[in-house]
Amino acid sequence: RELSEMDAEDELDLAEMERLKKNERACLEILKKYDFTEWELVEWSEQQAVFNFLYDSVTLTVLFGPPIDGEFFAAHPSRSIVSLDFESFLDEEQAPPSSCLVQKLIFQFIESRGSWQEKCPTLHYLPQALFDISLVVNRCKILGEELEFLQRWGAKFHLLEADIKGTEVKLLFSSSVAFAKFELTLALSQDYPSAVLPFRVQTHIGNIGEKEIAAVLSRVPAGHHYLQRIVISIHQNLFQGPR
């Protein structure tokens, strides 16, 4: 008798696991209808859902409340959301400065939105929240790749150094042929690459200063690979001269 009771309990556990798996699959289908899936689902249970972003360096934990009468999500009663908690797992001491900058900008965006729970009170709003976060993560990830590209190949564009301090990028350009050496500092924010970047210039050698840089930057539209295009444009316009 004890065995049959245990078997029945096991069967119930299996049925419950199967139900949760079905529920998770259905929820995933809805979530993946959004184009940007920069997230990875780590856990989906009755209590919570856990998502990872950016090579597991950012985690979002969504705590579920009770089901909501009359509202459905993935053919199941929708759930209220009690909280959305973001956590960083980046080791800032070990990580390259470009990764630290990317992480800062992502959390700048997260904090700028205020209470996520107010914007996402039920499961119904979760896909949009994941989409918004993914969009920023995607842009920041591309920025990280741009910074790595400039640090590796900068010499091709007369870029001596690309130094990152907080959310600022200092670009040191130098050319003996053009008799010029100057430092361009760009202030990055969560809006990158859709907003024009504030900048300042420090001239070390030669005549290239703020006026010359401003003229070049005014012709570089914001958008995809903005930072890379700024560097290439400075190289073409100030170091190569008219063709």
Automatic annotation (TrEMBL):
Entry GO terms, CC: nucleus
Residue ranges constituting the Knl1 C-terminal RWD domain according to the UniProt record: 24-144
Descriptive protein name: KNL1 protein
Pfam families assigned to the protein according to its UniProt record, in alphabetical order: Knl1_RWD_C (PF18210)
Protein origin, superkingdom: Eukaryota
Regions crossing the membrane: none
GO BP terms, alphabetized: attachment of spindle microtubules to kinetochore; protein localization to kinetochore
Species, as recorded: Copsychus sechellarum
Signal peptide: none
InterPro entries: Blinkin, Knl1_RWD_C
PANTHER family from the UniProt entry: KINETOCHORE SCAFFOLD 1
